[in-house]
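Sample pair:
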Amino acid sequence: MKAIILSAGQGSRLGHLVDDRPKCLIDFNGRSLLDRQLDTLEANGVHEAVVVTGFHDELVSQALARRSGGPQVRTIFNPFYKVADNTGSLFMAREELSGDCLVWNGDTLVSRALMRRVIANAQSGICVTIDRKDSYDDDDMKVVEEGGRLKAIGKRISEGVNAESIGLLAFRDGGAEQFRAAIEEAMRTPEGTTIWYLRVINHIAQSRDVWTLDIEGEEWGEVDFPQDVENARALTARWDATDKAAAA
């Protein structure tokens, strides 16, 4: 299995934190967001990663060159990151959508235990990792699922919402190729550059099975706003302390 990490955007909602570096290089207790994602992959046996870059791609390349160990990483530059949404990043990396693979948002941290569950899940096709909470706000990528099948996904859903996507998808047994074809079709439409890739997933789910994996109870965090950074630093500090105690 390989992972495709979407790290092209600046993350402008983080303000001055990303004036001179992309979101994926923000430090979380001595490790960048991207480093922590790659460490999590390596710890779960994923030894190949493709990072889609955009804003200050040269800084990402320099950071990757300084790494020792971990997955083998290559980058794909998305020159349209300022004008195309993340479907554009996947279009640039569409040749990587083959075989068993993950697609992971570059602003999402997940625990090693959570990733272990995603890797261990053998569901064929397309599988969206979901979590649950008591209520969902306007920024949540809301999900309607039934019996492990995705019925709808999007930020503007108002009826029947019972979960949210955490920004981590797994593809097996032809699911990646099916997604690639749908990405190519979407990018040929007049609105192609404005589409989120999960809108493509929603379109697929209207005619074919798209599955969900419920990871309720596992730890993860999304980094979109300044307060998210503080929350993620507290989260990663706790993970580091747990790992240190386990190694003692």
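The radius of gyration is 17 Å.
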